[in-house]
Amino acid sequence: MKNATIPHTPRVLFVCEQDTGNSKMAAAFLRHYSGNRVEATSAGKNPAERVDPATITAMAEVGIDIQHALPTKLTPDITQEADLIITIGKMSGGDSATGPRGTYAISWNIPDKKDDSLSTVRRARDDIEQRVQDLLNELLAETE
């Protein structure tokens, strides 16, 4: 994100296929660590009806409650509001979300869960948490 123009309060959109796991964790971690310094949301191309129960459990283990979160459909309006779009999993790479001119987009190649096991979700959670902390440091450096 070197030389990216980021407004004082960046708006970050995390996008994955169903918005039931990785994107929800990423948005929750960014809100948790940033306070009011960054706005974070998530959406999915084909959202499911509910967030994955193993994801809810894994986040509760680190003190973040997402039990009332609901998957959100990715729409042009949502992408237009974002300053930074991060695609995760299947959405990373060629089939990525695009925002208005000037929106910065990056991909995180975090595999989609192959199963719903809590151990798999925990590994993804820990990876996402570190990436979010690195992202937050970079975003805050850009806004100072």
Percent helix among the residues?
25-40%
Say what the CATH topology is. Answer: Rossmann fold
- Relative strand content: 15-25%
Question: What are the secondary-structure elements, in order, as H or E?
Answer: EHEHHEEH
Main beta-sheet strand count, sense and barrel state? 4 strands, parallel
Helix run count: 4
Cα distance, first to last residue? 14 Å
Shape: globular
Overall mean confidence score, pLDDT:
85
Oligomer: single chain
Global structural class: alpha/beta
Catalogue the unreliable spans.
none
Q: Name the CATH superfamily classification.
A: Response regulator
Give a verbal description of the structure.
This protein has 144 residues and is α/β, with parallel strands linked by helices. It has a single domain (11-143), classed as 3-Layer(aba) Sandwich (Rossmann fold). 38% of the residues lie in helices and 15% in strands. The chain has four helices and four strands, in the order βαβααββα. Strand 1 (11-16), helix 1 and strand 2 (39-44) form a beta-alpha-beta unit. Helix 1 (22-34) crosses helix 4 and helix 2 (53-61) packs across helix 4. The two termini are 14 Å apart.
Summed up:
The chain contains 4 helices and 4 strands, in the order E-H-E-H-H-E-E-H. It has 144 residues and is of the alpha/beta class.
Secondary-structure map with pairings?
Blueprint: E1 11-16, H1 22-34, E2 39-44, H2 53-61, H3 76-81, E3 84-88, E4 104-108, H4 118-143
Parallel strand pairs: 1-2, 1-3, 3-4
